């Protein structure tokens, strides 16, 4: 299957498919005319890549375990748990940072409201 067909079947842009190839996530064969030729298996592979991207993983992280996951179930791929744990740690840090920002914003809003109320009383 050509890149355009793979794009249509998966809903992933041709540009993204080329990027996945550049990152080593897809390996199409090349026809004599230079066109990429994807196996029917590539469709499943692209959906799997999309699943992991939607979990917030980078293409570099995905490349570390994709071949294993495509051959086995996730449970049998030892490479995946450390990556998941690291991602959860990152998310926890981001959540903590966002909660701090939210708290600071709420405090600032409260301060402004109190200042406005004080100004209204002085009128």
Description:
This protein is mostly helical and 123 residues long. The protein folds into two domains: 1-72, Multidrug-efflux Transporter Regulator, Chain: A, Domain 2; 79-123. The protein has six helices and two strands; from the N terminus they run H-H-E-E-H-H-H-H. The radius of gyration is 24 Å and the shape is elongated. The mean pLDDT is 94.
Secondary structure tally, helices: 6
How large is the share of residues in beta strands?
A: under 5%
Write out the strand line-up for the largest beta sheet, numbering strands in chain order. 1-2
Please indicate the count of domains.
2
Radius of gyration: 24 Å
Assigned CATH architecture of the largest domain: Orthogonal Bundle
CATH topology of the largest domain: Multidrug-efflux Transporter Regulator, Chain: A, Domain 2
SSE pattern, N- to C-terminal: HHEEHHHH
Class from secondary-structure proportions: mainly alpha
Q: What is the mean predicted local confidence, pLDDT?
A: 94
The shape is elongated
Straight-line distance between termini:
75 Å
Domain HTH merR-type: 1-68
Keywords: Coiled coil, DNA-binding, Transcription, Transcription regulation
Coiled coil: 88-122
GO molecular function: DNA binding; DNA-binding transcription factor activity
